[in-house]
What we know:
This protein is mainly α.
Amino acid sequence: MLERSSSARARLRSAVTVAALATSTAFCGTAASASTGPTPKQGGVDVAVEWYDVTADTIAAAGSSAQVTNSRTWAISWLSAARALRSGPRQTAFQDAALASAVHTSLAGLIPARTAELDAAFAATLARIPASPSKDRGVAAGAEEATALLAERAGDGLDPASVSPPYPVPQAAPGVWQPTPPAFGPATQAGTRYARPFLLGRADRFRPEPPPALGSPKYRADLEEVRDYGALNSSQRTQAQTDIAQFWLGSSLTIYNGVLRAALVQSRWQTSRQAELVALFHVALVDTQIATSDAKYTYERWRPVTALRAADTGHPSIPSDPTWAPLHTTPSHPDYPSGHNTYSGAAEQVLTSLIGAHSREPFALTSPTAPGVTRTYTTWKVLTDENVGARVWSGIHTRSADKAGATLGRQVAAHTLRHAARLLS
C-alpha cells in the first residue's frame, strides 16, 4: 500500500469523520450552516455533477463488460476525490480543482483509451477556475490521492478475468445450479467472492441463511409464483407488472447512476460532501457484489427455469413442464440471492442513511431496456420494492432470493457507513 505523506495524514486526522457525518442530521441534509451549506460554484457549474457525468460517460463509452469492475472504477475515482477534498481548505478553487484532478487522474489510469476526452474535460474545468495557489494545490492533491489509491487497489481481483474465471458445472441434482437456456453458457461472477473488499473484510460476513429447503411450503410458494407470474406466456401477470419487469431488466449500475445523480443534484451540499456520497455509494456496491458472489456460489441454488423443467422439480405437488420459459433470459449464475436486489438494497441503505427516506423532489428515471419509458419516484425504498417484484415477473428469480438479496445489500451498506472513517482518514 502506498503511504500518504505525514502532513497529508495529519490533515486528514483533523477532519470530521464520515462515520459521524453519516449519523448526523446535518449530513442528512436537514440542517443548514456555514460548514454544511453548498459551496459557491465556479461559473455557475457544479463541478461534482460535471465530473459525475464525465465518469458515467467514460465508463459507458469504454468501460468493462463486468459490472463490478465498473463499480470499482467509480469507487476509486470518487474515493480519491473525497480524500483529496478532506485534505485541504474549503475554498472553492481548491475543492473544484482537487475533485476534477482526482477523478481525471483515476479515470485516465483505469480507462486509458479515454485519455484524450478526459484531458479535454479537465482543461475545461480548470479554465473556469481563476489562477491561484489554492487551484494549484487542489490539482496536486487530487493527482496525489488518485495515484496513491490506484496503487493501493492494484491486484484486488476485480478485473474481468478474475471476476469470471472458468467454473466447473456442478453435478446435476435437484436444487443444484445448472447452465440455463437458451445459451446454456458458463457460470459468471464466481470469482468476485475472492476479490479484496474495500471495507467488508470477509466475503461471508453477512452471508444469508440457506434458501428454502426443497419440498418445503416456502419453496413451493416461491416456485409456483415464478411459474405463474414469470412465464413468457403468463396469463396472470398484469401489464403493469410486465412493464416493471422490463424496466428493471436493465443494468443496475446504469439505472442507479440516474438515481444517484438525482440525489447529487438535489443535495445542495458542499463539494466535499457530494464526493463522499458518490464514493461511499460505490464502495458499498463493490463490497455488496463481493458478498453476493460468495452467497450465490456457496448455495449454488438452481434457477426457476431449471427447476420447472426438471423431471424432479423439488416439490411433489409441482409438475414438471419441459416447455416452460421465462419472460426474460436467465443470467448465467445461481438464483440465491438476487444480485439486482443486493445492489438495490445497498443503494437504498446508503441513500436513506445519508439523505433520508425521501428525495428532496420527485426524480425521473429511464432504462436501457425500456426505451421511451420514464418512471418517477420520491422514495428510495420503492425502487427496491419494484426490483423484488420485477425479478419474479421476469421469471428469473424466486421471491426468497430477491428478499434475501435486498437484506444482504442493506447489511453490507450499513457496515460500509459504520466503518467509512477507515477509508477517509
